[in-house]
Amino acid sequence: MSVQIRGLTRRYGREAALAGIDLEVGDGELLALLGPSGAGKTTLLRVIAGLDRPDAGTVLIDGRDVRRLSPRERQIGFVFQSYALFRHMNVARNIGFGLSVKPRRERPSRQAIARRVEELLELMQLSGLGRRFPAQLSGGQRQRAALARALAIDPKLLLLDEPFGALDAKVRAELRVWLRDLQHRLRLTTIFVTHDQHEAFQLADRVAILNGGRVERIGTPREIRAHPATPFLAEFLGAADHAIANDRAGPAIKPCDPADPPPECGSLGVAPVAAYSDNLPMDQTVFDYAPPRPSDAAVPAAADRPREPLSATDRPVVSAGELWVVELAAEGLSRFEQDALVSANVIIYDRTLASTVSAALALGGYAEPASDNSAERCLGFVRDGWSVVRVVDRGVADFLAQLRMLALRLSAAGAPEDLPVSALACRGGADPKRIETRLADLDTLPEELKQVGGRAVGFAAFGGSKAALPHAVAFNGLAG
Amino acid sequence: MAGEMRRPVQALSRATTILAALALVGLFLILPAAFVFTEALAKGAAFFLGSLAQPETLAAIRLTLIVAAISVGANTIFGLAAAWCIAKFEFSGKSALVTLIDLPFSVSPVIAGLVFVLLFGAQSWLGPVLAGHGLRIVFALPGMVLATIFVTFPFVARQLIPLMREQGIGEEEAALTLGASGLQIFWRVTLPNIRWALLYGVLLCNARAMGEFGAVSVVSGHIPGVTMTMPLQVELLYNNYDLAGAFAVAALLALLALVTLIAKAVLEWRHGSELAVDRPGA
Amino acid sequence: MPVTEMPATKMPATKMNAAAAFGARAAERRVLPGFAPAIGLTLTYLGLIIMIPLAALMLRAAGVGPAGLIAILRQPRTLAAFRVSFGLSLAAAAVNAAIGLLLAWVLARRRFPGRRLIDAAIDLPFALPTAVAGITLATLYSNTGWLGARLAPLGITVSYTRLGIFVALVFIGLPFVVRAVQPLIADLDREAEDAARTLGASDTAIFWRVIFPALLPGVLTGSALAFARGVGEYGSVIFIAGNVPGVSEIVPLLIVTKLEEFDYAGAAAIATVMLLASFAILIAVNRAEQWARQRHGG
Fold first, then answer.
1. Complex ipTM above 0.90?
2. Taking chain A, what is the end-to-end CA distance rounded to the nearest angstrom?
3. Residue B170 with chain C: CB contacts under 8 Å
4. Which letter does DSSP use for residue A281 in this model?
5. How many CB atoms are located within 10 Å of the residue A300 CB?
């Protein structure tokens, strides 16, 4: 179900909560509405749901003007910020509510409802809790129950208002991944409101940043990161030290002209820009970066970019939650984009692999000067936008030292305790022996590397050699 | 040290205040309440029951029950409707409406009866019209019901409005998004959330309705066996110097009051959080 | 959420209904169903039960004309009744303020066996039907009654005198102040009391200068309610009062008497004045309470 919004306006007295919103959400897309409080995100969501009526503008759901439709006619599922679970019904009845109030003709039998409730309880990992009452559930459980309730009626559009706002960090992190996975599986068009940019960038296919009732910027997380476009955005995205916000630096990547893409243009339509400010001390750079997520397949169809689907045969992908092991060929940015870097925190690479480097830089929006005579360097991209540190790769011991530094830096920057650090070993495809030596070195120190500075470390590896893969797999205990 | 010396004085003054309070309550409140029952049973239980079994008394009891049932029923529906629109919607004039609902508390019950006599009585404008159709409102059941409704209608609404306001519209909105109709929302989502406050309000409303004297007295015409409620019967018996009889009926009413108080206390104790109690009269 | 009072610009005529009358903009926004029937029922009910009857009262009183009204009110009997009702209610409210404060304090701050019971008993005057209270008080305080007999040797006659009216009014007004003050006591800032203590204030000083100002709004509210109740009270009072015109006749009784004499105009006039006086006093006390709340920093 797609959603089109044109010129939506909603005023409260003199103030405009929405001042002309134009927005499109594609079928199956996960869109985040991001912005400071008072930006109008919740108002917009409620207007889409039909819980609030706008002063002007149109909302089209699947091409239909829904202004006259009540919420129940719009076939939406809404999860409220406070969950709004019915306090006097147990979880099972909460979930089955939407089905039990259908008009008699459409209403499923009691058994059918009970079955659906069971299904959803299992889907939401709430099995066995059906008879409990909302007051007896934890925050995360209530959240999932509210979601189950919204999903029970098979909505075509899912709306979430700060779904994880009231939960603690750990639960939040878990639920994010889980939600993304769920949304993916269900291919359900979803719009969610958040004020947490990390959450937005991590989860969403596209992010719409609202400010003062207007859409300041809308695009994929990568685009927005690379191109803050306005001072508000730059500030909002936390770019105080932001290299990109630095005017002298200029944009580090630029969108390719679709009519005439330059050779270094990748499949996502961006190309690195060589020039960069060389005044900034590189290893003190703090850089917010949210890497692309696994499912780039969800990029809206409106953007006509060619997509390269993952093919299982020559690119085995193994994942364990946040960790990815992907085998890549050495050449080409396109392969590189195949999600390998998603969860990596640190990239250790062999500088002989030039294209790998530039790819890494492009994704990070960070362009390495073309000539550099210093020692081999590796750029680390840290997931969840915490920091980019340059890790000098001079062997395992140095690698270890760099990892420790990274862990310390993460702590100093206030990263949550359970934020894992994963090291991606970048290696050139040309010299298998060299690669294997390196990895073999790492093999001998698994325990130390697994815990650095109190943080768990995982490994991912990519490169041209299939031979390297088993090492990495074994190392991470990712058998099978 | 001054602090040390103060302790016995403090203790004494504390004890004094407690005793004073207890004496006051005992003298002013508990004594009269107990007195009703002792007087009622002064001539023995058999006499007590015999008084109650008098046909006029029985008629009074029946009439009281009818009047109360109708009044409480109507006021409950009104209370639910008023609380629904006041608590779940925004509209201009809301605060005026809420003030209006509190009006009966500022009006003497006698005036409550008076207004209906003025409106429907023989000398009123509508009087001849009604007489022409053979309808009697004043000096008949309808008038008594109207007067009772006037006096008691805030009770249910006042219990529900603050609670429903507190509860907000989140659950109702959620039910709306899930496809429930207005009636379904009210019945399955709102009502369960307010059931204890509703019961509480109904209890208070009923106690007041059954015990109402001034308003009903003005409107009833005191027709024995026809328009005499229990409180009116008490007055009649008392004025006829039938003290034991008067207190017998009074004891029944007092019993009702006690049961109401106990039920109130139980509700507050077990479901206090779901009541958002607006203390009566406050 | 402020209600936007914008003129109804685009609403088709069919949508102009009772609901829309309460702010057209707001009507367009109402998403939850059931507003129209609920407000319709509420207003109809209020209209029939309250507005129309009260209007009838005002009309009847107005029908006498201002000169007639003044004439009725200036009758000595009427004036005396007003003096009795308002004067004694005021006195009773004042006494209740003191007693109520004491009771509320003891109940909130002291522990003793039976506290719960006493607390519940406070509601007795409110729950007990007025006729029952009336005959009980009358009998208790009559010269042969349990309390009356003990007071007679002291030269105190309660029943059939104004003192009797006063006692009855104190009885029925008792719960108001207690219940109004109790929540305020619960909300008291204990630390402020402790601070005062550390600064050397005596208990009395603490009470009057730290605690009492916070409770004043409740005392005022409760007293006002007790007063309003007392002025209009009928059942509890007429049995114990002498009901002697000019001496111990209360206004409600005067109204009833007028009715029985078919002097509807007179009854309406007195009732209207009584209503207006009660409202005026209530509003005044409301203001005073707000002032007290603001002064104290609520």
1. no
2. 37
3. none
4. -
5. 17
CA distances from A170 to A174, A202, A455 (A): 6, 15, 14
Q: How many residues does chain B have?
A: 282
Alpha-carbon gap: C40 to the closest alpha carbon of chain A (Å): 22
Q: What is the mean pLDDT of residues B180-190?
A: 93
More confident residue, C163 or A281: C163
User: How far is the C-alpha of A75 from the C-alpha of A1, rounded, in Å?
Assistant: 10
CA distance A456 to B102: 65
**Helices and strands of chain A, counted as H and E runs:** 14, 20
- What is the number of residues in chain C? 298
pLDDT band at B135 (very low <50, low <70, confident <90, very high): confident
Find tokens 């991590």 and name the residue. A202
pLDDT band at A407 (very low <50, low <70, confident <90, very high): low
CB–CB of A212/A19 below 8 Å? Answer: yes
Any idea which residue has 């719409």 for tokens? A208
What tokens appear for A10 in the block?
A: 């909603």
For residue C24, what pLDDT is reported?
Answer: 61
Chain B residues inside the 8 Å CB shell of C231: 108
Amino acid, res. C166: F
Q: How far is CA A303 from CA A184, A258, A294, A297, A299, in A?
A: 19, 10, 18, 12, 7
Q: In one letter, which amino acid is A291?
A: P
CA C178 from chain centre, in angstroms, equals 13
Q: Which tokens hold the place of C262?
A: 């078919």
Integer Rg of chain A from CA: 24
Inter-chain touch A98–B178, beta carbons under 8 Å: yes
The shortest C-alpha distance from A112 to chain C (Å) reads 29
Q: Which pair of tokens denotes residue A37?
A: 């409080």
Give the model's pLDDT for residue C118: 86
d(CA B180, CA B173): 10
Token look-up 């209370």 returns: B79
Pick the closest to residue B113 from B201, B231, B200, B225 (CA basis). B231
Mean pLDDT over C111-126 rounds to 86
Q: Report helix angle A432-443 to A396-412, nearest 10.
A: 60
Q: Which pLDDT tens digit goes with each residue over C45-98?
A: 999 999 999 999 988 888 888 888 888 888 999 999 999 999 999 999 999 999
| Selected residue of B107, B120, B210 to mutate for chain C interface (largest C Cβ count, 10 A) | B107
Phi and psi, residue A327, nearest 5°: -95, 130
* Residue entry with tokens 């019904």: A89
A455-462 and A56-61 beta bridge pairing: unpaired
- B174 min Cα distance to partner chain C (Å): 10
Asked if C1 and A12 come within 8 Å (Cβ–Cβ), the reply is: yes
For the question of whether the overall pTM of this predicted structure is more than 0.80, the answer is: no
CA A296 to chain centre: 10
The type of residue at B168 is G
